[in-house]
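Hi, here's the filled form for the chain we discussed.

Project: internal
Contact: R.S.
Residues: 222
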Amino acid sequence: MSFSQNLKEENRNLWNKILAHKFIQELGSGTLPIEKFIYYIKQDYLYLIDFARCIGLAASKAKDIESMRGWAHRMDGCLRYETLMLEDVSEKLGISKNELENSEKSPTNTAYLNHLLMVAYTGNIGENIAALLPCMWTYLDVGTTVNKIGGFKGHPVYDKWCSAYGAPEYRDLVQTYINVIEETSKESGKYMKNKMRSHFRQSLKYEYMFWEMAYNMEKWII
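And the returned structure, exactly as it came back:
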């Protein structure tokens, strides 16, 4: 079994809990209250901006120009494929780009991004990708899950979002992340692989918490 598949299987219970989360299930059925989705969109937009910064930090640590081009392509995928899609969905919801950019990060979103940025700044590319991969990879399975439910089809807002994460282009983008972690793991010893496992697990915990945060529309208590 590959290193990436091992990471997924080691965390299978948590992975399945993410896919079974009521936010995703209700989104797939088209019954999710729109105010919860609006909250999610605003938080996810802020998240993706710093996610892209982490990709840029990987590019800065790349060993050669071809690797740098690969990271530039992934960063472009994040900034265009995902953030532009969110801007389009937000426009349909009556949310301006200015409102998106100036929303306040929730406690969970803040903690998650601090984790990702810390790993990106202090770790090597293998650690960085291990921390970033749970987001990309679980969303691929979320796309499969909501499309199997199928109740969102024809919804004026949910249809575009759900369809985006089941598209072949997104699958190809995720595969590039998996390829990088496979290449990096082959060059890494036991100590580094364990660090990568730890970062992956921590990010996966935050992924679950992000859905929980969105469903509960989490706010700062003070």
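Let me know if anything looks off before we file it.
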